[in-house]
Amino acid sequence: MSERTLVQNLAALEDGPVTVAGWVETVRDQKKVQFLVLRDESGAVQLVRPRPEGDDDTSRIISGLALGSFVRVDGELKHDERVKLGGIEVRIGALEVTGASLPESPIAEDTSIDKRLDWRWLDLRRPEHNLIFRIQTTFEHALRTYWVERGFIEIHTPKLMASPSESRAELFQVPYFETTAYLAQSPQHFKQMAQSAGFGKIFEIGPAFRADPSFTSRHATEFVSIDAEISWVDSHEDVMRMHEELLVAALTAVKDRHGDEIEKAFGVSVTVPALPFPRIPLAEAKQIVADRGYVVPRADEDMDPEGERRIAAYVKETYGHEFVFLTDYASSIRPFYHMRHADDQGLTNSYDLIFNGVEISTGAQREHRIDVLEAQARDMGLDVEELGSYLDFFRYGVPPHGGFGMGLSRVIMLLLGLPSIREVTYLFRGPNRLKP
Q1: Does residue 2 carry a pLDDT above 80?
Q2: Closest Cα to residue 219, out of 430, 436, 362?
Q3: Which single residue of 57, 91, 208, 307 could bond 225 by disulfide (Cβ 3.0 to 4.6 Å)?
Q4: Separation CA 84–CA 224 (nearest Å)
């Protein structure tokens, strides 16, 4: 069997024998000639076959082809500038149907997102969706390259836990032999354990789970979390510096490799952000949006999504930047393990990173002193005994450290200007979606 050539590589070949394989996107079945458009994972090409008098087996197969069927074709490559699709075509010699499709597709271009998700494997055949996951691959590879080149260790933390990784809210419970396990909300505990282990700098890209009943465009019950943790930090500023350098490296790779394709498919120009990213203390950010006519309507001291959009708009106008670190969050709205300011216990060494108006990450310097950590847990009303296995990490010495967690799908969604993480998640999981 001849080795197939990807469509994207055909233009560089000389005229002559070639084998292509993919699925049938269109069929034009004319009296004297038959045309197919075949698409594979790299692009589309026109196939052509003159129709013989009285038809033959191949012409009858082409006439009966359902769109979406997978075929393999041996033929002759011919360069012809008159062919609108890339200036090349393949003249069909032999055609084999390797996977026939049902004749009627259950989805179309204007089908709703919910129904398209029901038939996700068909929805993913769209070229722009293929591109999304190539962009995601480039993005993740650039993250790993940045980390590995700087001596980070990649870890894979367990997703079954004996106790909550964050809080008792939004937990999935799983029967586990004679006891109950919890699906990890984040790798937080085990990232910090690596600091006690002396690993220094670590990262993980892996699944996380939140039993969150939200139906917003940016929430999922299972998502891919991008996490890093580093030792010997002086403050959250060290974490922010690593975080912004990491994103610049990733966005540079995406722009270099896919910038033109993204512009064509999504009408978005990828911007590589300047360093450093703007930094605004949260209290100052809330005052800025208040001065611009929006008072954040929350009982606590947090920012809300509209406030995030407005401070992002201010930053774009003022600094020409798509990113902003909101820093120094109140301790009342942060986890007990965030380090508090030495001179103001009401504030933490923490941040949220906003990208194009939406929060994509939370980071912080962690509290590494066991006595302070226990006291902060009690202040938050937590049971120190229940946190025993976590607190044990700190009883034998831990260096000053900090890190962040960031949602992969949110970043890709915002990068491409898409309306929902459903579009950029391979198989989305939400409160009412467990299939396919």
Answers
A1: no
A2: 430
A3: 208
A4: 40
3-state DSSP assignment of residue 106? coil
Contact 119, 107 (CB under 8 A): yes
Domains 7-99 and 120-423 share a fold: no
The token duo for 376 is: 């902060």
For 180-200, the pLDDT digits (tens) are 999 999 999 999 999 999 999
Break the chain into its structural domains and give their ranges. 7-99, 120-423
Give the separation between CA 29 and CA 67, rounded to whole angstroms.
13
Residue 209: closest CA among 181, 232, 234, 251: 181
Q: Which CATH superfamily is domain 7-99 in?
A: Nucleic acid-binding proteins (2.40.50.140)
Task: Round to whole Å and give the CA distance between 435 and 422.
Answer: 13
192 close to 231: Cβ distance less than 8 angstroms: no
Angle value at C-alpha 255, between 249 and 259, nearest 5 degrees: 170
Residue 413: pLDDT band with limits 50, 70, 90: very high
Domain 120-423 listed as CATH 1.10.357.10 = no
